[in-house]
Amino acid sequence: MVSIKPLRSGPLGTPMAVSLRSTRELATGNWRTFRPERVERPSPCNLDCPAGTDVRAFLQFAAEGDVARAWHTIRRHNPFPDICGRVCYHPCELACNRTALDEAVNIHAIERAVASEASRRRIGPEPIAAPALSPRVGIVGAGPAGLSCAYHLARRGYPVTVFDDNVEPGGMLRYGIPRYRLPRRTLDREIAMLSRMGITFISGAHVGATRGAPDLSSYAALFLAIGAQRAKRSRVPGESLRGVRSGLDLLREVNAGGGAPIVGRTIVIGGGNTAIDAARVARRLGADVTVAYRRSTADMPAHPDEVAQAREEGIDFAQYVAPMKFVGSGGRLTGIECQRMRPGEPDGSGRPRPEPIPGSTFTITADQALTAIGEEVDVETLHRFALSNGGRLRADRWGRTSRAGIFAGGDAATGAGTVAEAIGSGRRAADGIDAHVQGRDLVKEGTAERVGPPDLNLFYFAPHPRAIPPSVSDPHTFDEVVAGLGWPQAVAEAQRCFTCGACTACDNCYVFCPDAAIVPNRATGAYEVDLTHCKGCGICATECPRGAIVLRPEEQR
To answer: Is 392 helix (H, G, I), strand (E, B) or coil?
Structure first.
């Protein structure tokens, strides 16, 4: 029976009473039709990172100033945070929920700052207690996909040998990306960490050669990561003229330490990242550069940041222009006959298909022409392994090909992609190789619904501008263009992260629960729901800033 204490009177003169029993004795949970459940849902940055990095976790450690844990968290999935912090085109930021409030978190700048600070403090790799496994694994190609696969296999204890036909490892990281984007000291430092893990590198080994190719028969598994390092021919009449070459050849020459000065006007044909890199390198060699593209600059596949920097460096852009013929005199290029184009109906990429405008041909004067219309695979290697299928390797998500024990990944298997995509491809192939060698099944990857702005309570976050690293686009030097954030700046930028989908113990659910049904677990420190008293009002889910509490329909009782 409830004890009642009489009071003088209510506001209308009616008697009032109040219960003296503790609310803990009232089982209000019997009213419940929904129950709150604490969940951890994937953030969009995690789901959209091609390398598979736990972005949310490393940002949280960076926000706490814990550089060691942030760096180790990145390197569990990605061996190259200092490289990716410079050259990754950060799709994680395109999906950042912070854009619903102001601007995306500058994730790649924080990643670079974490790596730089870890290097400055001489923080070593995380100790790995991996057993020494006897099956040897061979990797063909020392680009980002091959190096990533080697790294993850070495972490598991496998002896790994990496074969590459170049003088030094790195693939397109070394021979394709210009120094003003990726300084060689950064690349060398991160590859040196792989050597210290016991990975063996054999240079000058062309696996596709008919003679003198290395013997790969003793390896338990092979991973083919040969990349797409051969420039496609333009198939434009006159491309054999002196002065016409591929932009990829120019990048290779300059990155290998060569590159003679270029005098006169250079026309770069293409709209991808290779075209922009070639244009900016030619500009640094002294050329007057124009990029000619058959669509608009807005439809270029090149990253907008690179295009903007190219403009700052004095590079011109000719839109809706397609080359028809290279013309010359005495065997040397003097100009390019072009066709003006206009946008038509959307094609398979969703962009307007360029259509020729009748009677609109014209000639551009040119001393040099650089073609950059795509890359293809060295088919000699494919033929050796009998895997050629339309000029590309065919492999599933874990790199498995039609031949048992032979795996493939990177650009050779997926088509031209980004550095981060190649790193992710190598990581998944390591999973596939490990499962193959150990004779076990691969764990299927689950799917989960990402946390979006409607799941968050943005009231608890204040607007704050995005940190932008300083940059100097100087076309007269190969010095690095974009500087990094200082560590204090990076910590402050990481604190802008919402930590979407994960509980951060902000106490909102505990404070706002009207039934005192949110209780701390003294052993774990986490909050739990006392279902005896929770009546499913949903206030805790509404007030959770990060979408880490959801309401589930209560089963019929």
So the answer is: strand
